Amino acid sequence: RPVVEMTGITVDIGGTTVLHEVDLRLFAGEVHALMGGNGAGKSSLVKALSGAYRIDVGEVRIDGETVVLAGPAEAEAAGVAAAFQDVDLCGNLSIAENVMIGHEERRWYGISWAATRRRAASVLDELGLGDLDPRQAVATLPPAIQQLVAIARAMVTHPKVLVLDEPTSSLDVDEVATLFRALRRLREHGVAILFVSHFLEQVYAISDRITVLRDGHGQGEYATRELDRAVLISKMIGKDLVELRR
Ligand code: ADP
Ligand code: MG
Ligand code: MG
Q1: How far apart are CA 134 and CA 155, in angstroms?
Q2: Closest protein CA for atom 21 of ligand 1
Q3: Residue 34 CA: which ligand is closest?
Q4: Residue 156 pLDDT grade (very low, low, confident, very high; cuts 50, 70, 90)
Q5: How high is the pLDDT of residue 175?
Q6: Rounded to the nearest 10 degrees, what angle do helices 173-188 and 143-155 cross at?
Q7: pLDDT digits (tens, 9 = 90+) for 183-225
Q8: Res 111 pLDDT > 60
Q9: Is 40 in the pocket of ligand 1 (CB under 6 A)?
Q10: Which of 10, 13, 18, 215 has most ligand 1 atoms within 8 Å of its beta carbon, as the pocket-test mutant?
C-alpha cells in the first residue's frame, strides 16, 4: 500500500487550472521522480502535497487515511516534510541551529538543548554528515552540504515523506553524487522521497518510479527500469516516437 495516494488532484490558481485530475502514489523506501518540462505543474503538485496550495478537487490519503492538507502545518503533522535550501536556511547560523530552528518550541518543549543537539547530530549522521562540526556556519558550506542541512532540518520531525523540488539545480556532478548517497540512506530507512527533476540522467540514477506531468495533466506512473528513455521524453513533450524520429 502506498504511503501517499493523491487521486484526481485539481488545483486552480487565480482562475487558471494548473493541475487537472492528477494522480500520484509514493511508496515507503522508494525514490519517486516527478518529471515534466518547465511549467508542467511539478512545483504546483509539490505545493499541493506540502500544504502550500489548496487542492480544489481530489483526495489525499496518507497511510490509507484521508487527510486535508489545509496548510504547511497540517501537511507536516500528516508526515510530509519539504526541504528548500533557499528558504529554510540561515547562513549565519550554525548547522545545528539550522537543523533545530523552529523545531525546539513545537517538538522539544521541556527537553534540554543537549537533547535537541543530539537529535540534530543523529539526523546529520543518518545523512552521512556525522563528521561535520555542527557549530560551523551554514554559509561556509558548499551548496550540496547546505542542501543536506535543509534536508536534515526536514527530517527532524521523522516525516514519512520527504519532498525535494529540483534539489540538484545548484549542484555540480560530485555534489549530486553526495546528495544521492544521502537520499539512498534515507530510502534504506524507509522514507518515501519525492524527487522533482527534469534531468533524465539524475532520474534514472536515483529513482525507483517516475510520474510524468505535461501541461498540468498526468501522463502516467512507471517503474524507472521499465521505462525507455525515448518513451519518457515523448511523454514529457507530447509527441509520439515516430514524430520524434522524423
Ligand atoms: P513546473 O514546476 O513543472 O515548472 P509549475 O507548477 O511551477 O511548473 O507551474 C505550472 C503552471 O502553473 C505554469 O503555467 C505556472 O505559470 C502556473 N502557476 C503555478 N503557480 C502559480 C502561481 N502561484 N500563480 C500563477 N501561476 C502559477
Ligand atoms: Mg517552473
Ligand atoms: Mg518547478
Answers
A1: 16
A2: 13
A3: 1
A4: confident
A5: 92
A6: 20
A7: 999 999 999 999 999 899 999 999 999 999 999 999 999 999 9
A8: no
A9: yes
A10: 18
**58 φ, ψ (degrees, to nearest 5):** 125, 175
- What's the pLDDT at 109? 52
Rg (CA), the chain: 18
Question: Is there an atom of ligand 1 within 6 Å of 46 CB?
Answer: no
The CATH number of 4-245 is which of 3.40.50.2000, 3.40.50.300, 3.30.950.10, 3.10.310.70? 3.40.50.300
> 128-148: b or e for each residue (b if 16 or more CB lie within 10 Å)?
ebeebebeeebeebebbbbbb
d(CA 96, CA 112): 14
Bridge partners of 221? Answer: 211
Q: How far is CA 67 from CA 3, 20, 70, 78, 126, in A?
A: 12, 20, 9, 7, 29
Return all residues near 144 (Cβ < 8 A) that are at least 6 apart: 171, 174, 175, 176, 178, 179
- Residue closest via CA to ligand 1's atom 22 equals 13
What's the CA dihedral at 186, 188, 192, 197 to 10 degrees?
A: 60
Question: Are the CB atoms for 189 and 123 separated by under 8 Å?
Answer: no
d(CA 1, CA 230): 30
Contact 140, 133 (CB under 8 A): no
